[in-house]
What we know:
The structure holds two protein chains of two kinds. Chain A is of the alpha+beta class. In chain A, about 50% of the residues lie in helices and about 15% in strands.
Amino acid sequence: MRRAGPILIAIVGLLALAVDFLPGLTVPDLQGTSGGRVIETKLGLDLRGGLRVEYRVDARDGKQPSLADVNVVKGIIERRVNSTGVSEPQVLTAGTDRIVVEVPGVSNTDEIRKLVGQTGALYFVPIPKGTATVQTGQVLDLTKFTPLFGGEQVSSANPGSDSHGGLAVNFNLKADGAAKFSAYTAAHVGEQFAIVLDSTVISAPSIQSAITGGTVQITNEQNIGGLPRAEVDNVVNVLRFGSLPFPVEEVASDTIDPTLGAEFLTRSLLAGGIAIFLVILFMLLHYRLPGGVASFALIYYALIVYAIFRLIPVVLTLAGIAGFVLSVGMAVDANILIFERTKEELRLGKSLPQAIEAGFNRAWNSILDSNVSSLITASILYFFGSSVIQGFALVLIIGVLCSMFTAITVTRNVLRLVVSQDWARKAWLYGVSESEFTARPARRRALRGGAPSV
Amino acid sequence: MFDLISKRNWFFAFSLLITIPGLIFILLTPITGGKDGLKFSIDYTGGTEWTIKFKNPDVTADQVRSALADLGQPESTVTRTGSGFLEIRLTKLDLREQAPLPSAAPSTSPGAGSPGASASAGASATPSPTPSPSPSPTPSPTAATSASPGASPSASEPPVSNNTEIPRTGPLGEIVTGLEARFGPIDQQLSLSSIGAIVSSDLIQQAVVLIFVGALGILGWITLRFRDVKFGVTALVALLHDVIVVIGIFAILGTLFDVQIDGLFVTAMLTVIGFSVHDTIVVFDRIRENRARHAGEPFAEIVNHSLLQTFGRSITTSFTVVLTLTALLLFGGSATQEFVLALLIGIVSGTYSSIFNASPLLVVWTEWEEQRKGRVAPPRATRPASA
């Protein structure tokens, strides 16, 4: 096992370095996407800027949405967000009735919020002859206009093309809607009807002829190219996903400017760098040679944790980075306990190798118990906290687990290697006086030496 | 040897001295209805927080505050940051109460001021792809203005700017209009958060439950590991001490300097609970070891000896964490300052309570138990001044 230790440490370290710094590495994706996922550092919205909106799915007609219902709503919202063409949108469910939309680095935040938040009461409304022409975007008072039928009668909607190859909207109606539409259009050729979402007119074409059979096309043949592409996409989206089975309510929103996010990132990275530097300086001054080994283990720790962040991937937020910086201070605590114990054992007359082994073995209980305490509270935060809190907790959990490996296994193996060198057997390197120091075990004790490994 | 345990009443008194004023200030919160005591951020109260900068660099926080009062937001707070941004906090305004949206669909032409201008093309509904024989009576004659050739859909996307969009609609849009009428255009918006009261009530409930469950978890773990409920309970008392100290200091800071506690505060509390027990564990571990080794010696002496043996490392382990937190506090920027401050206070308090509360309490409890059982004479009488 003593051989295996250093080899394992070297392999893990090299792997971590590769994951940290080699660009373009991929890992197989669990979703089975071809080519896998590129390993990269994921930054949260607070660090890269963007929009985060939290919605609550409300009851409709006294019926509480089930988890499955919430997922249906989430799917619709996801398609709505994707239809805006923003890059890397994220739609997540949170808790039992929340849906969180995160869109990084967007400028048109109001637009997205409006689109996503639409409750989506979709109606087909005839505009009787004699009323003023209705235009897109106009708010229609549905107490004055009686809808013919609702959005639930739409069976499908797609972009299509008109007779000149211009863009158009095609949609199909279910039997009931088709019958009503057929009867109405036959009697009202030349009049307008409106597709109305949440009292707002989405499209208001006029009826060219009786539409039987439920297959409908909206065109603009006067215009070369037909309807504008954006309008086609919008009308198709509204027809397809217009009605949410349950209304959603916006309960919180956050907009962060990308420049602010960038400033947060630089500042917290600077603070993290300073924190690591200060801890290393302290460990070197206070514990000398073992402190140097602990500093090596600390840098090793930082590289491994960063590699894990990139692998999982953990979305780094401001709180997450704070959690990481905090964990740097906690990671060396195990070393402090070990080194203090080692000093004690040296002063009790043990030789250097024996004292080091005893230091590791005797400090183990305290280290385990303390780290488990931190894991208990971090896990509680992770399982019951909101997403921001979860980010911090996950970083802390990863940090505690990694530090158990680096502060104990890595430090122990490196220290064993170092102590076997002649130059490393000086009392002052360990912060004890010459009279307290025994470099080598006495022969007789050496036979008994080598305390059981952890 | 220095006798810490015999001075335990001084240590308990000192803890009371810090916790009682804190508790008073915490109690001020419900008494004054939130005017004094703990100041909650919009994470808890609901409301809107907004950081903007006007083109005119001379606009002061006071001017904006009085303008907001004119606009029907009398309870707003405005502070000016070092970089010239204005941090506006509106408690009454809730962005969720949006007026009926003028355009439910994403507006496809960014330049269009009114929805009508980009109105739909004269559309026709035809059951079959037969060409329309005659131009249909187009409802909107301005159709051509918004029509871009379908071949280049990107032309209709809004221009990408680096800045986030300043709201123009809803209640906040009205305020934007009002402010711009007074101070000229808004140059940049750094951040905009709006939180409804539902999220807020969730958060308070959640915080209480989390702290409770966390404390119970630690109590269970310590009791399990040391096989003695006395260790668990005294560790728990030390933890509660730390929680009260942190919340109390924030109540004082809130009253005097308007320092707020935000949604991350509960995270800080749980981290403190998890970390401050580290030092307690180190001492307890040593007590267990020494108890086995020096069986028969008075418990107070064993505890005292263990405390002195581990004193240095308790301070050192906390010191490295204090170092990193100080770096975060000084260089990490304003967004996490309150969070880091809460951690810092909690960890310093945790070190104190581990050394000076948890172990002396363990002695008090054990001695009381022994006296009650009447097994030994009161240990105080037999204990020499130094070992």
